[in-house]
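Students often ask why inverse folding is considered easier than folding. One informal answer: many sequences map to the same fold, so there is more than one right answer. In these notes we will look at a single instance of the problem. The structure comes first.
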């Protein structure tokens, strides 16, 4: 089984993105699968286009994209991507869409086709806090999740796709507001490997 694992580059003034840092630490044979990794720019439309180009190139069985959700305390497995983007902060190329539809010919939303609840439960079972999230927001992560699901619906019906948001790493919260949650990148990487175990074992849960 081949799995594309993507992580975003740093954005919003951060010098690292714990998502891509953790992606890099995941074993290339996690869960016995062939893991192909890709760093994705935090740029509306371009990030999604790069992931889709890689999907066309390597034709994997599943794609799991990973992004930073600073302020969230645990791993969150996204359940749905929505056909809408709106940014409070510009992306890495200065774009800040003020409420746009992603795909004019797309559904309002698509459910992730990887089993979000089972992935969150399996990560929890290994002692790392995780839960299902029912909103990936309206920024570049949602753009990628929605666009990949839209692509799969029309061009790769067997492809399973999903998204995981991860907290800040501890070094990112130093000097920020008191109580801002964080998680060690090593634990985030372990959580991604547990997610991959579920994809390998029961990726067609929905
Ligand atoms: N997180 C952002 C985009 C890139 C990333 O890692 C998001 O949640 O949309």
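Output (designed amino acids):
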């Amino acid at each position: 089984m081949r799995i594309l694992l993507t992580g975003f580059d740093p954005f919003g003034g951060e010098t690292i993105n714990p998502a891509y840092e953790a992606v890099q630490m995941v074993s290339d044979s996690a869960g016995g699968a062939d893991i192909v990794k890709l760093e994705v720019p935090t740029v509306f439309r371009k990030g999604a286009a790069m992931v889709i180009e890689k999907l066309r190139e390597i034709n994997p069985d599943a794609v799991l994209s990973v992004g930073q959700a600073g302020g969230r305390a645990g791993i969150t497995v996204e359940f749905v991507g929505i056909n809408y983007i709106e940014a409070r902060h510009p992306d890495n190329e200065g774009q800040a869409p003020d409420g746009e539809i992603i795909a004019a010919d797309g559904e309002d939303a698509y459910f992730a086709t990887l089993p979000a609840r089972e992935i969150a439960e399996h990560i929890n079972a290994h002692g790392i806090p995780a839960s299902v999230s029912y909103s990936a927001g309206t920024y570049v992560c949602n753009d990628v999740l929605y666009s990949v699901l839209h692509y799969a619906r029309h061009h790769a019906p067997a492809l399973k796709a999903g998204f995981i948001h991860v907290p800040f790493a501890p070094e990112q919260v130093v000097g920020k507001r008191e109580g801002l949650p964080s998680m060690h990148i090593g634990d985030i990487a372990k959580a991604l490997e547990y997610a991959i175990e579920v994809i390998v074992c029961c990726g067609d849960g929905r």
